[in-house]
């Protein structure tokens, strides 16, 4: 085996430039595989992180599709969830860690001579815990604040910075929303963007009763946020919520629900769908490059067989068997491919961090992708090197010795 390795290495070094150009297709293909998979892994990790920042064991109940005049609206297009639904779920569904209705409006918020358009969320006192919010200062409103529609609110970091300046504690300050005064009682710690690119820190949270009575005039909700007590109970809680709402909305068996329940995992799968498509496309083009690289190896090995015909004839004449020649040329092809694979992996390791640094795209190189890439390069060497090796092993010794 050592002799075969030395001979193969000598053959590659004999035409170093040609060998390097032959390996180029493999290098590009393997580097593309490494970078493509690392982009997919990085994007998935980022999405999972952002989905996790929304809360733990989260379930979101949307007002479902409603059909009017043959036109079907999307999730949340009609507010059909009621306060009665909320109270029923709160009291009847077991395994809930919390539940909150959601009323969302966009309003101009004014304070300290500044004003800015801000999403305003009307929610229950459970919302902060459901969505895993932490406080920089102050605290949450209470169930009593919700029942009395008290004019208090919690402010996000981005909104607080816009209205009061960088690092200024806004707790105790007053803001005006549609000319109604609200006192800030809590300042939220920053979360950053969510999985859909929205700034989670640009918001104001207040009791849903305050939003409905003093700002929006709504009487129904487009969505609820709920939290299961544990990851194992998510499906159980989801089924319970569905049963209670079907009963309250008098939906008989066989009829479509007028609501939709989405779990955190389903939201993660939806957000990752585009990443998977991107990874597949990059993998496809990387595969084409690898095939081109494999064809290059076949060409170089066929050329090598032609150039070394007399050498093959001498080996066969002095006692080498056809399978020895086959093994020698096949080993050379695999070694050439593996060297290209190793250089491609090194190139991928170099390119992935550069992509993150200069393009801001998250990348995460996994051991699995490295092992897979190296194995693929070896397989390409075997597949595309076998025919030239077989041709060399079948040469007639006498004809090979006569070859000029």
Give a verbal description of the structure.
By secondary structure, this protein is α+β, with helices and mostly antiparallel strands. It has two domains: 2-49 and 272-402, no CATH class; 81-257, no CATH class. Helices cover 56% and strands 18% of the residues. The protein has 13 helices and twelve strands. The chain has helices spanning 2-14, 16-53, 83-92, 127-130, 143-147, 157-164, 208-216, 234-248, 264-307, 309-317, 322-359, 367-393, 397-402; strands at residues 58-63, 67-68, 71-72, 96-111, 114-123, 135-138, 152-155, 174-177, 180-188, 204-207, 223-228, 259-263. The strands form two sheets. It has a six-stranded mixed β-barrel with strand order 4-5-10-7-9-8. The chain has a two-stranded antiparallel ribbon with strand order 2-3. Strand 8 (174-177) and strand 9 (180-188) form a beta hairpin. Helix 2 packs antiparallel against helix 9 and helix 9 (264-307) packs parallel to helix 12 (367-393). The chain is elongated and about 105 Å long.
């Amino acid at each position: 085996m050592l002799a075969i390795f030395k001979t193969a290495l000598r053959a590659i070094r004999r035409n170093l430039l040609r060998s390097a150009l032959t390996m180029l297709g493999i290098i590009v293909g393997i580097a593309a595989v490494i970078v493509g998979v690392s982009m997919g892994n990085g994007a998935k990790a980022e999405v999972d992180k952002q989905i996790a920042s929304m809360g733990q064991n989260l379930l979101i109940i949307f007002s479902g599709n409603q059909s009017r005049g043959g036109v079907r609206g999307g999730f949340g297009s009609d507010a059909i969830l009621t306060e009665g639904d909320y109270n029923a779920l709160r009291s009847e569904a077991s395994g809930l860690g919390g539940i909150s209705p959601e009323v969302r409006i966009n309003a101009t918020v004014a304070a300290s001579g500044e004003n800015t358009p801000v999403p305003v969320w009307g929610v229950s006192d459970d919302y902060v815990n459901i969505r895993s919010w932490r406080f920089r200062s102050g605290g949450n409103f209470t169930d009593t604040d919700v029942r009395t529609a008290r004019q208090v609110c919690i402010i996000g970091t981005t909104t607080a910075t816009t209205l009061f300046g960088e690092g200024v504690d806004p707790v105790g300050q007053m803001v005006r929303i549609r000319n109604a005064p609200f006192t800030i009682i809590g300042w939220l710690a920053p979360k950053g963007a969510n999985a859909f690119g929205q700034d989670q820190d640009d918001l104001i949270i207040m009791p849903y009763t305050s939003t409905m009575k003093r700002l929006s005039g709504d009487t129904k909700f487009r969505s609820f946020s709920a939290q299961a007590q544990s990851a194992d109970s998510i499906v159980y809680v989801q089924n319970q919520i569905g049963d209670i709402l079907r009963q309250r909305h008098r939906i008989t068996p066989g009829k479509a629900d007028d609501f939709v329940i989405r779990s955190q995992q389903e939201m993660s799968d939806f957000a990752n769908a585009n990443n998977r498509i991107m990874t597949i496309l990059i993998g496809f083009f990387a595969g084409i490059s690898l095939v081109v690289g494999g064809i290059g190896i076949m060409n170089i090995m066929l050329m090598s067989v032609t150039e070394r015909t007399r050498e093959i004839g001498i080996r066969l004449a002095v006692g080498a068997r056809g399978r020895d020649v086959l093994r020698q040329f096949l080993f050379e092809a695999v070694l050439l491919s593996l060297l290209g694979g190793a250089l491609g992996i090194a190139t991928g390791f170099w390119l992935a961090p550069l992509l993150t640094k200069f393009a801001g795209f998250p990348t995460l190189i996994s051991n699995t992708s490295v092992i897979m890439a190296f194995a693929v390069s070896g397989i390409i060497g075997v597949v595309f090197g076998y025919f030239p090796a077989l041709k060399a092993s079948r040469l007639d010794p006498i004809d090979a010795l006569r070859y000029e």
